[in-house]
Amino acid sequence: MNDVPREFVFTRYPGRQGVVWLRMAYTMFSQKRGPWVLLYLAYIVVILVLLSLPFIGPFAMLVLRPMLAVGLLAAAWNQERGGAPAIKHLFQGFRANRWALLTIGVFFAGGITVAFSLASIVDGGKMLEFMALGGTLTTEQAVAKMLDGQLRVGMFSFMLFALPVVIATWWAPALVVFQDATATASLGASLRTALANWKALLFYGLGVFFYWSFLPSLFIYLVAILVPPPTSSLLVIGLLVPYWLCVATILNIADYVSYRDVFHANETLAPLGRST
Prior knowledge:
disordered N terminus, disordered C terminus, single chain, 11 helices, mainly alpha, 276 residues, 0% strand
């Protein structure tokens, strides 16, 4: 680590630390459930508004995502020092370091676009076709599409191509805001640090898969067997939507928890200032 700039010195963790990040994030969430849910709902509303913009909606959402992510980081920072998450934190990223965050957003949007384009070449446009059809598909048609082997190859290819972009931008907004890094330096440090902690990230990813996909899929399967329709559909929607909302909130808290643990291990907390 001698070649790493002093301000970006990081801690290298074993695999199990990825699970620890999820546990720590859940602890923070459980202490302030109401404020966190309200803040994340506000975040979703802003994302939906951006997506609804004609022509530029998806691109605008991707570009501004790092700035909005800073709001969730600021809320976690505030809670860690005795405060509470609040909707006012959501726009913290628009108040400082705007150009660096926008640059990260452009990099993220461009990288995701390239990854999607490469995946479309691999699967012959199956994923693009599936996304274009969107809400016009019935449940049965959507399931049939998902069973298409070529589409699944495309989705796997997209995740593979997008992975370097995702890990390069994972801790980059936090490095910009908390350590006043430039966009280029933060992207490089995030990528380098994530690769050094690949075991922890692997365990983290497995944890995300378990709570985001495996448990809900198992629940849907059991409900389909034990409960007749339409009650089964109402039960799945009524329970899984709040569940996924909570899990998504916890994962965003984990962004801060992991950054704090990797880049500021064993540091004494700074006092809570008026600006937060």
